[in-house]
Structure formats: structure tokens, C-alpha cells
Amino acid sequence: MTTIQISEETRDRLKSFGDKGDTYEDIINYIHALAVKEQLREFLMSSKHTISLEEARRRHEKKWSKSK
After folding, report:
1. How far apart are CA 34 and CA 11, in angstroms?
2. Is the pLDDT of residue 26 over 90?
3. Is residue 40 part of a domain?
4. What is the pTM of this model?
């Protein structure tokens, strides 16, 4: 185990995430799990490096259309 120093204000804010009987470790693990889920959601829902369906269709037609 380790000890970390935080202000009383931060300690009180941490407490607000927990239920009666939760340890600070429980609360921090809960917050961490939420943060990981949020990062995954942001990654999956990001429009970065995406193209529209219309653009995908255009590229598909260009690449896969039969030569005449």
C-alpha cells in the first residue's frame, strides 16, 4: 500500500463518488473504469479518419466497377 497526499477539497470530491462503506481505492477504481469507458466511447464515436457513406460508395464504384 502507498499513501498519497490530496487536499481536503479533493478528498471530499472523491467521497461524493462513493457509497457508504466504499474505500478511496474503491472510488478511484470506479472513476478509472468510467474514464476508460468514456475514452473507448470517444474513440468509437469519433469521426476522425472517417469518410461519408456517399464517399465510400464513390470509391467503391471507382475501384470495383467493371471496365467497359
Report:
1. 18
2. yes
3. yes
4. 0.63
Cell numbers at 20, concatenated:
457508504
Total domain count, the chain? 1
Return the amino acid letter for 24.
Y
Distant-in-sequence, close-in-space partners of 22: CB < 8 Å, separation ≥ 6: 30
39 domain-assigned: yes
Q: What is the mean pLDDT of the chain?
A: 91
Domain that holds residue 24: 10-64
Q: Is 32 within the bounds of a domain?
A: yes
In Å, how far are 12, 15, 26, 61, 63 from 66, measured between CA atoms? 67, 65, 60, 9, 9
User: Could you read off the pLDDT of 28-51 as tens digits, one per residue?
Assistant: 999 999 999 999 999 888 888 888
The answer to whether residue 3 is domain-embedded is: no
